[in-house]
Amino acid sequence: MDGYVSISYALVAATIAPIIFGPTKYALVATFLGFAVTSLSRVLGSLFFGNFLGDRLGRRKMLTVTVFGFSIFGFSIGFVPTFSQVGLLAPVIMYLLLFFVGFFAGAEYGGGAALASESAPPSKRNFVGAFVQSGYGVGYFIVSLVYSLMSLHFGQSLFNSTDWRYLFFSAIIPGMISLATRFGSLDSSVFTEMSEKKQISKHPILDLFRESPRALVFAIFITAGILYINSGTLSYYPTVMHDYLDLNDSSIGYFIALINLISLFGVWIGGFISLKFQARKLSMFFYSLIFTIFFYPLLLLGYSHNGTYIIIGFGFQSFLEAIIFASLPTFLAETFSKKYRSTAVGFSYNMGAVIGGFAPTIISVFEITSFSTTPWALNLLGGCAILLFGVFMSRETWNPSSNKNTDVIAN
Description:
- It contains 21 helices and no strands.
- It has about 400 residues and is mostly helical.
- The model has no long low-confidence stretch (mean pLDDT about 85).
């Protein structure tokens, strides 16, 4: 659901820039600032919902409230008036709705990672976590196909004027499915036991900052690096294809869907490999090095007018990126105590998303006059450096004896 709404915005960014943000050369930059607005509100949402719901009332209850909230606000984006209708009020309304989408979505990752990690045995936790991580990509894949079908149905010129709104209206469908799923799920045994023993923290946020400041800082480095890379690739591909490769909307949706499908296999394969090689930190560091070595040649291959090369280059770039993500939910969940796990995982992930959310904006600033792969590549290299530093400085959370009685998840 999160991926569906977020990528809906990325897919139509170039289309809605002049419609919502006005006839200015900075319209696209202003559109991409919407990612930054969402990222900032995600941090606030992760703290608010994690502290008052996830770590006090339960992971499941929090996830039920949050999915309902950002489904409604994501749907409401389809009603935003145009710049020609209300002037500067149009971008203000857009930013406001994006703020509330991010506010509710901010708690999703922390609650989901905590619930999944607390519900899986240690040796299979990475494998389960990889599927949790792939949820965003599944939403990305589905909305890309919907976007391609809609553009074919409405036609290029019509879709560019008004019918982009239907993409956001369609978000209510996966939203309601997600809500129904949440109502039928159970909370983790770890949280249930903690509640029965009256071990619930009264102030999860304060406990987090008092007990785990170092772990929190390096976790933010990791998420900032990987999410900067992610936003600078998967969230930026549609604009590259639209503005610089001159592809039509239906082709963009089709290509993005295929590229995202390749990335999904990356995170799933990463989870499968983890069944044999359990180390969380070591695997992330190794995969990050591989991505750093190969991302630029693949970027050059993808930046072409040949459809096959676009899919191969950007697809395998996303594949290598996705493998890094496979161990992330488990690594973060195992890093922090159960007393404030939902708050800590959500906060560290979304603090990284704040930095990552600026990637398309920063890259687009360099590309206002003309496009060059060099600043794009340098931005991605910066993300790699931040990621590698964070992983290197963090501690390993996997202990082979955790299958016995020393599982960090239960602590």
